[in-house]
Amino acid sequence: MKQFAQLVDELDATSKTNAKVAAVVRYFASVPDEDKLWCIALLTGKRPKRTINTTLMRLWAAELGMVEPWLFETCYHTVGDLAETIAILLPPPTAPEPIGLSQVMMTLIILDKADEDTKKATLVGLWQRTEPDERFVLNKLITGGFRIGVSEKLVVKALGQYLGKDADLLTHRLMGKWEPTKTTFDRLLLDENAADALSRPYPFMLAYPLEQSVDTLGPITDWQAEWKWDGIRCQIIVRQGQLFVWSRGEELLTDKFPEFLGLKDSLPDGTVIDGELLGFQDGKPLPFQVLQTRIMRKNVSAKHQKECPIRILAYDVLEQEGRDLRDQPLKVRRQILESLLDQARVDAVMDLSPVVAFESWEMLSSLRDQSRDYVAEGFMLKRHDSQYETGRKKGSWHKWKVDPYTIDAVMLYAQAGHGRRANLFTDFTFAVWDGDLLVPFAKAYSGLTDKELVEVDAFVKKNTKEKFGPVRSVNPELVFELAFEGINKSTRHKCGVAVRFPRIVRWRRDKLPTQADTLDMLKLLASQTSEPAIADNQLG
Amino acid sequence: MGSTKSPLLLVFDGRGIYCPVGDFYIDPWRKVERAVVTHAHSDHARPGMGHYWVCQDNVPLMQHRLGGKIGITGVPYGQTFFLNGVKLSFHPAGHIPGSAQVRVEYKGEVWVAAGDYKVEADGLTPAFEPVKCHTFITESTFGLPIYRWKPQAMIAEQLNSWWAQNQADGRTTVLAGYSLGKIQRLLQLLDPDIGPIYTHGTVAATNRVMEDNGWKLKATIPVSQVKDKEDLRRGIVLCSPAALGSAWMRKLEPLEAGMASGWNALRGIRRRAGMDKGFILSDHADWPSLLTAIAATEAERVFVTHGSTEILARFLNEQGLEAYPAKTEFEGESMNQKADEETIELDPAEATHTNLGQPNKLGDQLATEDQSQSQTTALV
């Protein structure tokens, strides 16, 4: 645990990729295989399910630290992170003793079925044998929400260096469903093992946003344009008569969408399709929120299936008859995909994502302006000759999104952030005018520079009107331009509209609060989108 | 004793901690005639007071900060003096060199205003000394149980092994801390056998004042005198936080930068500061020491200033003490270390341009500036 805590610290201390890679390599070289395996699992977001809830952790920590609950909560609001609060609030360890990462993880997993007393004794025991830096990591492993600031790509790079193996191959080995308790370091990464491979998806190919002017991309005949849908990117795998639906976040979604079950018969064995999963009704996609509501449900009822019918719009084919097609050019893969869907009887749940015909970049550009009419976010531009590569590669695929909506809003509430932004007021609630009232409509966290954040933080501290726990209401003086991707009427939000992906574009120092936009303006935008209102019963 | 019915010996008004009987202020932040000052940090020692009373050790530091022309009286630790019939004495606060608690006694009632203090002895300044009193005014900068300092010997180990590692990697070590107090304490902890110790100009100036006045500091070399870059990479450069990230610092590349502060106890702050290494070392009392120090005064009533005022006051109330938060201007959510340092690094030249010798004008100014703020904080 000491080494892992040190690794977390080192990863945290630097923003340089090479230094991070070196730290991970050093870690691999210094611990046994079972700890390496757990480290890979944890750094790539594979966390066992939580066995101790945070309410109990707070209670036991307050007790062991001999502080009243109110004081514990005050500390938590100052620190901004529960795991860290407990780690540093507890007195120094009474019986410091080394313990391995894998041992810690196994100890926690076993607690799943244990009674409360056993959980308490175990956790308190772990706290008493670890230093604050180890405790912090330990607590993070329990509470989840561990953002260490390493990408899977970085872990793979370190692993590649450590093992002397090709990174793309290792990325593929780490895809899909594997559990550190059920495999070994050798088996996962070094052995050829068919059983593990059955459900394994391919690493998704991703696109960079188009930053240059579109007409610098060269002849339009080199490019394929598709609508960029706002759903869940996924891979549909049919192998040996079994179906697996993976999200891009490597979540297995098969059980959430019973509608797809028939695909295991209608698609030939050894098929892998890359596509977008969408709520779909009356020939067009539903807004993302409708789909999201359905995903969040643990059990999918017939009601949900009816309220949010789903469909996959297929972009690409990665495997045919068990053959990896990723090194074929897109043009070839597209032909295979079209004939595959032509022959298979999948119409009920799957369709081709159409290729958009265009004769000039200007024409495509004006089509892009209509993206919202198609419930799309813009275009994907892919080179006809592009291979299906691992991760994000420059040059062959671009996402070309439609410009977001923007609106000027007044900051009304502020709350301290977490992690790097702990102790700094960085999470804001924004409002627009409804007559002479300011009505909150969106929260936004990102978009300001560190320097601006410090300035706004100082403003919040000087202009606090009221404190509600960690939230402060502030004098409505600062105006910010917010951008968002979508807007819908909502009965669930007090203001009557819900915006998607709100973020701060810029601080409008030139504007007075009275010059901010109005709720009527938001409502107008919402009514212009052709999507249905989200009602309470849908959001449940 | 300490009956709450008797008028308060010290009150918190819009200008500082005021003694109505003695007509003097402790650590005033607005211009007043008589200022008793606990230590030379700029949030406590402000320019422009009619006359200053400080502990003897603090005189040169005050003059360094506020200019040589200020009217100032130095009194040794433990020695009593009187202002308008009120008995005063200074007692070691252990915060920084020259820092003192102020004991105020009138008609048998004793109050102690501790200013800033730390309990662990640093070897530079006389160690904090609990003073028995009826009413204790404590700071609470780190008044939360999440703040627990490690013994400074352990921090010394961290500092020296970090320096040695940077040296092995061929990088200059840059270590930042408040130039008055923190830096000299860090200097105490550094092992000169590792390599040369250099100073930034601000630090060198403060060190010189201290050395001229009898403090024994380890040998340092102004960084401006370094000829060979190789020497620099073996050494450690001490600077104030304001120098971090400056053009001056970039000339020392390749380097590793660290800073020592109590705020570094919080991960978010360590990360935001954007330096390579954050050492947790403070000249303020941590939570356990605040509680020990308060208990040792045997005070029945406690006023809590500067930091987690309401929290510590509530905690003490729950422990059965009569405790109140008190608002002062040296209160702050001052986690922005750089901003703090900038206020502390007041230009001494500028500080001397005050209205000394023009009491009338000063008085007028006070009358107009402070009308809105002069109400006494309601205490009970």
For the structure shown, list the relevant keywords.
heterodimer, A: 540 residues, alpha+beta, DNA ligase i, domain 1, D-amino Acid Aminotransferase, Chain A, domain 1, OB fold (Dihydrolipoamide Acetyltransferase, E2P), 3 domains, seven-stranded mixed sheet, seven-stranded antiparallel sheet, 24% strand, globular, disordered C terminus, B: alpha/beta, Metallo-beta-lactamase, Chain A, 2 domains, 19 strands, 28% helix, disordered N terminus
Label the structural class of chain B: alpha/beta
- Sheet with the most strands, sense and barrel status of chain B: 7 strands, mixed
CATH superfamily of the largest domain in chain B: Ribonuclease Z/Hydroxyacylglutathione hydrolase-like
Percent of residues of chain B in helical segments? 25-40%
Rg from alpha-carbon coordinates of chain B: 21 Å
- Give the termini separation of chain A: 42 Å
Number of domains of chain A: 3
Would you kindly provide a written description of the structure presented here, covering whatever features stand out?
The complex is a heterodimer of chains A (540) and B (380). By secondary structure, chain A is an alpha+beta fold. Chain A has three domains: 2-143, DNA ligase i, domain 1; 205-401, DNA ligase/mRNA capping enzyme (D-amino Acid Aminotransferase, Chain A, domain 1), CATH 3.30.470.30; 405-537, Nucleic acid-binding proteins (OB fold (Dihydrolipoamide Acetyltransferase, E2P)). Chain A contains 21 helices and 22 strands. In chain A, the strands form five sheets. In chain A, strands 4, 5, 6, 7, 8, 9 and 10 form a seven-stranded mixed beta sheet that branches. In chain A, helix 1 (2-13) packs antiparallel against helix 2, helix 2 (17-30) packs across helix 10 and helix 3 packs across helix 7. Chain A starts with a helix and ends with a helix. Mean pLDDT of chain A is 88; it is low at 530-540. By secondary structure, chain B is an alpha/beta fold. Helices cover 28% and strands 22% of the residues of chain B. Chain B has twelve helices and 19 strands. In chain B, the strands form three sheets. Chain B has a seven-stranded mixed beta sheet, covered by helices on one side. The model of chain B is unreliable at 1-5 and 331-380 (pLDDT under 50). At the A-B interface, helix 5, helix 6 and helix 19 of A face helix 7 and helix 9 of B.
